[in-house]
Amino acid sequence: MIPQPKVEEIINASRIEEVVGDYVNLKKRGANLLGLCPFHNEKTPSFTVSPAKGIYKCFGCGKAGDSVRFIMEHDSLSYPDALKYLANKYNIEVEEIKLSDEALQSQNERESVLIALRFASDYFTQQLWEDEEGQTVGLSYFEERGFRHETIRKFGLGYSKEGWNHFYDHAIASGYKEEYLKRAGLITITEQGKIFDLFRGRVMFPVHDLSGRVVAFGGRIMKKDPKAPKYVNSPETEVYHKSDILYGYFFAKQEIRKQDRCYLVEGYTDVITLHQGGIENVVASSGTSLTEGQIKLIKRFTENVTVLYDGDPAGLKASLRGVDMILEQGLNVKVVTFPEGEDPDSYCKAQGGEAFSQYIKSNEKDFIIFKSNLLLADAANDPVKRAEVIRDIVESISKIPDNIKRSVFVKECSKLLDINEQVLINELNKIFRNRRKEEKELIKPTQEEPLNYEELLEQNEVEFRSKENQERDIIRILIQNGFELLEENKNIASFILEEFEAHELNFDNVLYQKIMDAVKEVIAQNQTINHQWFITHEDEHISRFASDILLSRHELSKKWGDRYAHLDGEREEFLRRDLHASLTRLKLKRIDDLLNENLEQIKQAETEEQINEAMQVHQYLTEMRKGLSDEMGTVVVK
Description:
Helices cover 55% and strands 11% of the residues. By secondary structure, the chain is an alpha+beta fold. It folds into 5 domains: 4-89, Zinc finger, CHC2-typedomain (DNA Primase, Chain A), CATH 3.90.580; 106-240, DNA primase DNAg catalytic core, N-terminal domain (Alpha-Beta Complex); 241-363, 3-Layer(aba) Sandwich (Dna Topoisomerase Vi A Subunit, Chain: A, domain 2), CATH 3.40.1360.10; 382-441; 465-553 and 566-632. A 5-stranded antiparallel sheet has the order 1-2-3-4-5, with helices on both faces. A 5-stranded mixed sheet has the order 13-12-14-15-16, sandwiched between helices. A 4-stranded antiparallel sheet has the order 6-9-10-11, sandwiched between helices.
């Protein structure tokens, strides 16, 4: 358990723009910052960060909260672990609590898998530097590749010894459970029950997620064995989905944002060599075909990608489809190839980082132009092949979502392919018509199901009930202004609670009632309430809703603010009116509910006495309703 003063210190130190900025490329928009949401797929930015209020809000998917909530959501961490992550980021010392065997067993299973992977990474690193076999085989290999010791340590490179179960035996002896070693993809169990290490006699490349946690490994074999694969990679696990991970991304993200460009290579050593050469905005797809998830990772920090290929023509053609996917996500793509027999790793070592960077700048080409030249060289003078090339190029152009960019490339390709521009436009329109037709066929009418409130609450949605708007108004005032003094020694929150108690008011909305109960408990303990109290609340529903209330999608312009600046002195009076009107509206709705209940009693009355009694109640409620309506200036329709 982290002491509350330490929690407050961590929260106060955690600047929302810095925390979110580690994961999302944010751009200034008025008083706020704007970027692409990391929680759902979007092409137009709707993810807003308010440095002044210390909160974020996505107006697309509804996710909202403070720095702690962001880390919890993004990295799937518990509240204490998110606090520890932020404490580490801001160099705040938090006393570590040694977990007992019981606590370790009850720990979240996902976290247990991550702990096992961290342990494995430390073990492989230790074997590389301290074990004789690791030094002779593993460290020597890295040194022969030209990796300096500081580079090896930076990327956490390691070595896994020859033998069936060196790692497994060490892990079990250290208290790690076989179940989590298997779920982390570190061991294999045969049908006969025999257990052996997945990585044996290999140099190890840890794969980090966006937060720097080890989630997987790649292992390169050190002996010649035609029956064994050159590389063995971790299987898919609950913490590792290879389609959503780019090797080196954790080390590259800040430089990608700074340079506003990402270099995309194929392998581990390409990334490491370029980093060592001072080119740090580089990531790798690690030998797998490029995926949509990987492209979205890049798009968080830049819209400019340069793909670095080796000179192998067959490899180039196989990679073209992946680049089409980059275009489809709206990124600007350039391509660089290297002389025959060279790849990014070898060429950077031979030329040095500075010359390598200059080579990229001098030789990068727009992907569409590059692809046209590459395919036209194969087509030569064959008209059939040339027609296929043109269709292929138009297909790539059709992936570009921006109309202006598409038009520019159509014009360029018309000259390059020596074909009328209108022909390309016609082919492009044909592709779009076919896509629309396919999309329509995929859309099927679905039967509307009744809303489930608990599910909606989980999604940070609100079910609109009879008193929804009136209830929301009260909670809005409570969150925005509840800590302000209304009169001597009484703040707005206390006044609202007294009104609810005096008039027997309550909320139909479960979330609103939860917020009211939480405020009541704090006031009873004579504690202070402010914006931060709501935003940093441990209940994620309260935290999200508060962020939603406090952060508006639209901002008033400075001119508008200047025009009505003279009204600032009347702010307190406006607030009183707003509070009075909101409470009165809620009371009116409460009376309406009571009137409806009483009418039902009149209909079901069996005796004259019951009818008279119900009619008296009806008259009393009607008079109350008229009095409240007169206060509001509302016309009574009933």
